[in-house]
Amino acid sequence: MATDSWALAVDEQEAAAETFGKLNLKGEKAEKPKPESNGTEEPESAEQIPSKDGGKSEDDDKEDKAAQSLLNKLIRNNLVSNTNQVEVLQRDPNSPLYSVKSFEELRLKPELLKGVYAMGFNRPSKIQENALPMMLAEPSQNLIAQSQSGTGKTAAFVLAMLSRVDPANKYPQCLCLSPTYELALQTGKVIEQMGQFSNIKLAYAVRGKKLERGQKIPEHIVIGTPGTVLDWCSKLRFIDPKKIKVFVLDEADVMIATQGHQDQSIRIQKMLPRDCQMLLFSATFEESVWRFAQKVVPEPNIIKLKREEETLDTIKQYYVECHSREDKFRALCNIYGSITIAQAMIFCHTRKTASWLAGELYKEGHQVALLSGEMMVEQRAAVIDRFREGKEKVLVTTNVCARGIDVEQVSVVINFDLPVDKDGNPDNETYLHRIGRTGRFGKRGLAINMVDGDHSMQILQRIQQHFSKKIAQLDTDDMDEIEKISK
Ligand SMILES: Nc1ncnc2c1ncn2[C@@H]1O[C@H](COP(=O)(O)OP(=O)(O)OP(=O)(O)O)[C@@H](O)[C@H]1O
Known about the structure:
Bound molecules: adenosine-5'-triphosphate
CATH topology of the largest domain: Rossmann fold
Number of helices: 19
Number of domains: 2
InterPro entries: DEAD/DEAH_box_helicase_dom, Helicase_ATP-bd, Helicase_C-like, P-loop_NTPase, RNA_helicase_DEAD_Q_motif
Pfam families: DEAD (PF00270), Helicase_C (PF00271)
CATH superfamily of the largest domain: P-loop containing nucleotide triphosphate hydrolases
Number of strands: 17
Shape: elongated
Mean pLDDT: 83
Distance between the termini: 39 Å
Main location: cytoplasm
CATH class of the largest domain: Alpha Beta
GO molecular function: ATP binding; hydrolase activity; mRNA binding; RNA helicase activity
Organism: Xenopus tropicalis (Western clawed frog)
Radius of gyration: 25 Å
CATH architecture of the largest domain: 3-Layer(aba) Sandwich
Low-confidence stretches: 1-59
Strand content: 15-25%
């Protein structure tokens, strides 16, 4: 069996069954306690999910996306910069388009402005410049907004919710839906931080929360997962949906990965008053997200911020012909022996190869970090953080694990195995994302692809054709030749 197909088989299994299996990221389903511990003894009607026995279910997809999103949030401590223009589509094209360059211009309540500054925000982010005036306008307007993770969406809608709350009214006035319990907690933290000087209280509507039957909750903002929020609004009546002024649907792209969540969100939306402000946020905007967005947000304004495009223009690409993984490792050692590599990311196809390789590199004296699918998402965030701080020089990872993670300072990327999709075809998008650079971070980079066997050679050729960029051969037994590539 060729190395490639073996690796492929293992990877498929990993991706489908194990990678996120050990993460505590099952959203509300995982947190669901036994009925007797809920205190409410409600049946589970609103919470049915599809069975998991048919291979990779939509729930696995959701966990995959939710894990990625959470990981990005945990490791990010500032804005992702973007030089692309914001695209704004107003519901009423005749109304003037406002954008703000400072938070003062928004005329926020002083305690809220204090909260914003306490978070270290000096000026609105690109998406906030347009989204905030729209969200805070009177009478309220609906909004669908899409921009890459890390561009300031959460902070924007949190500010909108906080500014619409009347603290004197002790009942829920804002409702925010998140795809999983963990993501709800992250948004909750932002609400608490930004609202620290306002007398605004927050409740989490997640499974396991014990409440007395017949009780009405006094908190001003409720954040939770769709199934529980639906129960709280309908059967359990902890919330009066008719009093909700702002309804936020966060991470819509993650949300729609579960059919149940879509239906529940739509059912909640139908209970809200007509003049309730509806806001929907998503990192991506594929057709399915768009269809869902239009169902839950009537007459919307739309704001889009394109992701900065990655290109291969400033990347020198090479391939090395090998015959086995040991051979690849020797080639890798020769490269390390010939050029100075500040920090490198090495991608493997399977977890098994990644841990083997990390072990071998460690034995050679390298400071290696391993990012593995067995780790909890918080542990993975910690590994990435250490690597970003330069505490380790080599990060070995599988693709499933590192998807969507940006470590900008890495100038050398080694594809120990080439990226392929589930069907064994070249995964061009992943290739580009692993080694590409945005215009802004247009530093020169080096990418080295390890090829072993005919199949991976074909993959390499197809990647080369796809991007119309030459990938030159590198002889790793020729030290002089290796030295040249770093010049
Ligand atoms: N105006 C601002 N100035 C400085 N930092 C900001 C500003 N707005 C947000 N941030 C910070 O930037 C980071 C990303 O912001 P935020 O979480 O709101 O983005 P996001 O688009 O919602 O991302 P995600 O979809 O991953 O949640 C956070 O650390 C946040 O505190």
